[in-house]
Amino acid sequence: MKYKEKVKEKIKESDIRAKERLKIWDKICEDYEKGGAEQVKSDISERVNAIKSDFDEIISILNKML
Amino acid sequence: MLQIKKIKIDGFRGFPIKSDTFEIKNPIILFYGENHQGKSSVLNAIEWCLYGDKCTGVKSGIRERKDWEIVNRNSSKAIVDIEIETDKGIVRIIRTESKGNGRIERTIEVVLPDGSVKNEDDAESEITRLVRLSYMDYATTIYQHQEAIRAIVTQKPSLRNEAMDLLLGLADYINILYGIKMSKIKDVQRKLVDNFDNFQEKVEDRIKFRQEELEKNKNKAKSKGLKNKELNEKGLKNYMLDIKKDTNKFASQLGISGKHIPFPSNWKESSIFAELIEEEIDRLWSKSPDIKGQRELSSKKFEADNLKEKYIRQKKSLQKQKTGLKKFEKDYGSLGEIDDELKNIQKDINDINEEIKCISPKASLVKEGIRILKDASLSLKENVCPLCGEEVPNLLDHLEKEWKQKIKIEINKLDSKKEELEGRWGELEDLQIKYERIVKDIEREEKELLEVIKDISNFLGKKFTDQEDPLAFLEKELGEIEMNLKKINKSIKNKLGKINSIKEKNNKIILIHNILEQENKIEDIMKINETDEYKEAENIRDILSEFISDIEEIANKVRECSVNEAKNKISSAEAAISDFFMKITKNPGIKQIKLIVEKDSRTGGNSYSFLDQDENEVTPILSLGDFNSLALSIFLGLSKMDSESHPLKFIIMDDPSQSLSEKQKKRFVEVLEEVSQSKNLLISTMDTELQNFLERLALKKTIYEFSKWTPDSGPSINCRT
After folding, report:
1. CA separation for the pair B527, A65 (Å, rounded)
2. Residue among A8, A52, A53, A61 with most chain B CBs within 10 A, to mutate
3. Does B520 touch chain A if contact means CB atoms closer than 8 Å?
């Protein structure tokens, strides 16, 4: 069994957010096969930065409400 | 079982041109030669032909393969063509890569024993079906890379764990964990949490600031006479009702109809109401009769003051001119006197002219007489002058000289007098001009005064007789204006009191409004965590936290799988690894070697320990050669254990004896002899000792000697069997 399936099985063992984590893991594997560790890094960074950007925007609105 | 039979290389890495065919017939194939002669390229060619892109770049798990060039720099196309013997016959695999015009083109073709041909994806699938081994497994059980040994031998002990991971084929786990680590998601989360904390602090600060401002306004309200019980909506409403009444009353007092000002439906509109009241008060005031009267009277007073000033100034100016004339007459006489003197002077000049005229003919006559006397040599009483009576030697000459002198004196006297008279004449003419100028100035000033009087007349609506003094009338009018103005100002002062009272109430309305607004704002800020925006921020924070927690959990699972896989591999190959290690090293202190893998609590990665029969860590006593032997033992052990899971009947070793001693090499070759019973060995080395030991083996072998490599033609290869 390859790394992808082995980790997938491990994730499935957990009851907590297994479905969501499997989705994330699939994306990590897809990125890895496409562009190695660099691609994994850039995709995760992009996702967290997008979330942070949404957060910054809402904080900016809240600041104006003070 | 699969056995490689032939390899042809063209344009691949160390082979700029097409090579001879490498035949793989014997149990041991040795590629021997110095460094950079193209030996490793043969082994790489097999790997690349089977796995293509998977064995290139950093994702191969080999750092040296970053920017690995497939096509030789003196060639435009790399072709590797290998023949593999299978149970059903020969399978041929041809992989190519060409570069040109900045584009890279790749092809793969598989020719099956029945002659059918598969290309591209179908060809890749066919190879996977045939080989049944992932690249990572191939790299750890079939192909012992020289980099793997170099890493475990030369790396610092702290980095040996990573080298062991690679040796065990765990590069995928390691690379993915590295990618996750480099994304620095924790830093982003920390920043986001900090931002949220800062916002919370800012909320507290704003509440404090607003409360201070509220307190200031309440104190201000108190100082303006407002009571605490009035500082609410009810108090505000009462003030607004009151002020509306006051404004209407004020309008009716002024006799002006007031504008309708809508009463606010809630306290928030009270500021607009206050603005409208302010505007209405200003409007009423500007239209009030008192203000209008004040404006008119002020304007009239201004005009009268101006006329008065102009009249006085003009009068003064005229008086000054007249005084100037009087002084002139006093100094130089009147115009008539000047005229008279001029006439007299004229007469005197005429008389002198006449006198000069008379003297001149007489002088001519005398002169002529003297000349006649001289010509006629008239005998006069010699030496006695008839004119002066004196006795002279030459009487006629004397007479002539004497005559000239007397005439000259007389005429000079007259000329001098005439000159004097003419000078006076000029002075009198200047005085005449000056006099006339003064008179003209007086006439102009009088005209201007008349103009001012006309203006005063128009202003007062009255015509003046010569006996009347316009200034007196003007001053009387001014007095009346000032009296009326005083009356109006008094009335205005009274009304201003009312205006100020309304405005003061209006200010109180604004003050109460501000207090209510501040109280409201404080309440809003205090309830900010109940707003949709705040909940959204919390939600985003939780989403990020959840995502990061998912990623961390996935990373944990990756580490778990990595350590499990390492454990499984070590567990299944441990006996073989220990056996090979003992055979190669013959270390008397070590009777058995155990590999223990655990999760490193600090890094989260795998941590390897090498223990002897007494459970003591052996790494402190291992030499470089021992580490090299350990790496080879792990590779051979894994290779032995894994051989049932795939059909490949060969193993490849690249520069395996890097740090081995001569004895270790000899024993290593003995181990290889044992391994060659079940698998063909393809070995690349520059090590002469190893070559000698291998040549002495009583096994069939093919030796390819590599030498004289050039960039244009590649290696010169000599084949011996």
Report:
1. 11
2. A52
3. no
